[in-house]
Structures are given as C-alpha cells and as structure tokens.
Design goal:
The protein is of the alpha/beta class. Helices cover about 35% and strands about 20% of the residues. The strands form 3 sheets. Strands 1, 2, 3, 4, 5, 6, 13, 14 and 15 form a 9-stranded mixed sheet that branches. It has a 4-stranded antiparallel sheet with strand order 9-11-7-12, with helices on one face. A two-stranded antiparallel sheet has the order 8-10. Helix 11 packs across helix 13 (about 405-425). The longest helix is centred in the last third of the chain and has 21 residues, at about 310-330. The chain is globular and about 80 Å long. Bound molecules: (2S)-amino(hydroxy)ethanoic acid (HGY) and manganese (II) ion (3 copies). The site of one manganese (II) ion has 6 residues, from loops.
Length: about 425
C-alpha cells in the first residue's frame, strides 16, 4: 500500500518546470513541464490501482471505484471528486495547484488504508481530477478546462484562443492527441460529480492576519472556503504610429507606450480608491517591441476583482473611460476586449459547514475564509456542491517563488482532507 506523504510527492516534482530566468516555476498547460507533471500524476495514480482516463476536455480522472461494483459506469455517477491543477503562472510557486493534487493522492493513501482495515465502508466511488489551464497563462482564459466542461465558455471561442507563439488551442489539443470536436459541455462527465472538494494553498495573508493569529503570530493551519471574489480579465490595446526612435521628433509622435504607461497608473489609482477592490496590470506587450522602435501598438491586460460584481463592472467602465481620454491626448486609439469573467462564488453553505466539522478532527480551528483567487472549484460551483480547504502559507505570497507551505501544515491538510472525504463517502 502506497504511503507517500504529500511532502515526498511534491519533492518528486520539485525540479519540474523550474524557470531559471524568472525564478519559480513555469508550467504552462501542455508544455513539456506540465505534460511531465501529468505523467507523474498518472503514474502515481496507476501504482495506487486507480483507473485513469482523460476526458474530451483534457481533464484527467483517476477513479477509486466502489469495491465489488458490477456496473462500474453506473457506480461512478454522483461520485465524490477531489483534485486541482498542475499548470502554473509564469514564474509561479511550487504549491499553487500541485499541493491539491498531491494532497488528494496522499489523502487517498489514508482512506485506502482505512478501507483495507475495515474502518471505512464507502457508499460511493471517488475520483481525483486534474484540470488543464487553470491559470489561463498560455491561452488567456483561466479555468479553461472546467469552463469547457460546464459550458461556461463557447468551445469554438476556446479552440481559437492563441498562445504567445500563435498556436491555437485546437492545434495544441490535436498535437496532444485530443479531438477538438470533443470539447464543450459534457453532461455525462458532469453527471459523475456528486460533490467536488479542492484543497489549495492559501494565496493571501488571511490566515496570517491579526484576525486569526495569536500573540505568537501563529494562526490556524487550515481554513474552509467561503467565497471567491468575482474576477475578470480584459485587454486594452493602444494603437499609435510605429516609427523610428531616432528620426521622429518628440513633438511628432503618437506613442501608445505613453498611453499604456499612464493607464497603468490610472488602474492603480482607480483600484486603490475602491474599498476591497483589486485592480492589476501584470502584463504589457509593446508591438513590435524593438529598442529603437516607437511601438505601433501596446497591449495591456487588466485583472479586476471585487466581491460585488456590479462594482467590478463599474471599475472596468471607469478604467476604459480613462484609457480613452489618455489615448486621445496621445494621439492614439484604444480598444477594450473582455477575455473572461467569473461572478462572485458563494460555496455551498451546508457543505462548508460539514467541512468545518470534519477538519476539526485534525485542527482545533479552521475559519471560513473568502479568497480573491479563482479556482476550478469556483467554476464547478455553478453545477455541483463544491467546497475548498486552504492550507496556511506563512509567506502570504502566491503566484511567486516565495509561495510556501510548512511540511506539518501540508500533512495536516492531508489528514483533514481525508476526514472530509471520508465523511462524504
Ligand atoms: O487568477 C487566479 O486567481 C487563479 O490563480 N487562476
Ligand atoms: Mn490554483
Ligand atoms: Mn493560481
Ligand atoms: Mn535602422
């Protein structure tokens, strides 16, 4: 019986996708790094006797079937599903995604031992799932796999998304043995999911804030997911006149870089002026991007989040108006396009309450925690009862190499996840 701890599972992949230039990890979906993480997961699941398959949307399913099930397909309907993702942001941390996948494998080890000893009698099948393109780092739309599964994105639009090299998602999917015609809402697969539970590294300072820490500055090791802030991504394309850096007088320029730079400052000011808003420009791409070339276009990506979706929309509208005024003053034009949007998610309160009871067999306290980070669990919440567990991240930093989880907390996360799953099995 496999008894790998979550820490040894994570140690086994610690060198996969290291980004020497950026630091941290770059494991874009269907990159060599992420493909080798998929192989790692499939090998770990297979050695545990789980039955592994990949569905038409590229989601991997590792099935722990009911003992003695005569009709396996029927016995999988309404299963208990856990899991997360293996892709990362550029230069991301080691835990965002993989902690949930590794913890699911380690929690299976705990539960399988309980079943073998007779301490666990299951009423339903369980699956560990791995969702592709959760970060949207390659094709621009976050949670692409779960959005395709639920129909939250039109498959035609998804298939035509392009990565930085111009490859379409359809081309990359085909190159990875998938049939583009198979993508889209998948009722039969959705029918397999009775509940979905995702364990994830905490990505903010929540558990380290004064609200939860004691005099020694220590807070709870775990939290239960409460809400996910509504969030979206927009692209602002500033178009000016490309020209020669040496022959074009300063007074004779329509330089989109100037408009984009002022817009970045306006985004910061607008976000800071709105309580509990998060407004970010993390990506800026001048075209053509030559040192001695005045850009002809600058693409700027905007990430805006707020608990109230109407305020998110108002902020984007405000920023769009500012961008139009700034562009006009620089003799440029600007085009706003929405890349993706997710409404604020309130996790199933009954399930959150049940999770809070189960995790207390491992930790004394696990507060309900809202998060500003999106997750596949947030997308699936529109279809099935969904819950999340967060594991303390002492750095309070994520989407960066400093993201961190202490071994003991990771182990507590596995035990709590095992108890949560056992109570739902
Ligand atoms: O962007 C997010 O919140 C998530 O990490 N994809
Ligand atoms: Mn994540
Ligand atoms: Mn992330
Ligand atoms: Mn020249």
């Amino acid at each position: 019986m496999q008894t790998s701890t979550v820490n040894s599972l994570l140690a086994a992949i610690a060198d996969v996708g290291r980004d020497q230039k950026r630091g941290g990890y770059s494991r874009a979906v269907y990159s060599d790094a992420e493909l080798s993480l998929r192989e790692w997961f499939i090998a770990e699941a297979t050695t545990r006797g789980l039955e592994v398959s990949t569905d038409a949307n590229g989601i991997i399913w590792a099935w722990w079937d009911l003992p003695g099930a005569t009709d396996v397909a029927a016995s999988r309907r309404g299963a208990l599903v856990t899991g997360s993702h293996l892709d990362s942001v550029p230069g991301g941390g080691a835990f965002d995604g993989p902690l949930g996948v590794a913890s699911s494998l380690a929690a299976y080890d705990v539960l399988a031992a309980r079943e073998a000893s007779g301490a666990l009698l299951r009423n339903r099948a369980m699956a560990i799932s791995v969702f592709p393109e959760e970060e949207g780092s390659r094709f621009g739309v976050a949670c692409l796999g779960s959005r395709l599964l639920t129909g939250a994105i039109d498959p035609v639009r998804a298939l035509n998304l392009r990565d930085a090299a111009g490859n379409t998602f359809a081309d990359v999917a085909k190159a990875n043995g998938m049939d583009p015609a198979g993508f889209g809402r998948d009722e039969s697969t959705l029918g397999l999911i009775g509940d979905f539970i995702e364990l994830h590294v905490e990505q903010g300072k929540g558990l380290n804030s004064e609200a939860f820490t004691d005099a020694a500055g220590r807070g709870p090791a775990l939290a239960v997911g409460d809400t996910i802030l509504g969030h979206g991504r927009w692209k602002l394309s500033f178009t000016g006149q490309g020209n020669h850096a040496g022959t074009t007088l300063m007074s004779d320029r329509s330089d989109p870089m100037l408009a984009a730079a002022q817009c970045v400052v306006a985004v910061r000011q607008t976000g800071a002026a709105q309580d509990n808003a998060r407004a970010t420009v993390g990506r800026l791409e001048p075209v053509p991007g030559g040192t001695n070339v005045i850009a002809s276009r600058v693409d700027l990506w905007l990430d805006v989040r707020h608990p109230d979706d109407a305020i998110t929309a108002m902020l984007v509208e405000k920023i769009h108006g500012q961008a139009q005024r700034i562009a006009a003053l620089e003799g440029c034009s600007v085009l706003l396009t929405e890349e993706s949007f997710s409404n604020t998610v309130h996790f199933d309160p009954a399930l959150a309450k049940a999770l809070s009871v189960s995790v207390r067999r491992t930790v004394a306290d696990a507060p309900l925690l809202p998060t500003g980070a999106g997750h596949d669990a947030g997308v699936l919440a529109s279809e099935v009862p969904t819950g999340m567990l967060y594991v303390r991240n002492p750095s309070g930093i994520s989407h960066s190499p400093e993201e961190y989880v202490e071994n003991d907390d990771a182990h507590a996360g596995v035990l709590a996840l095992a108890d949560v799953l056992e109570d739902l099995l």
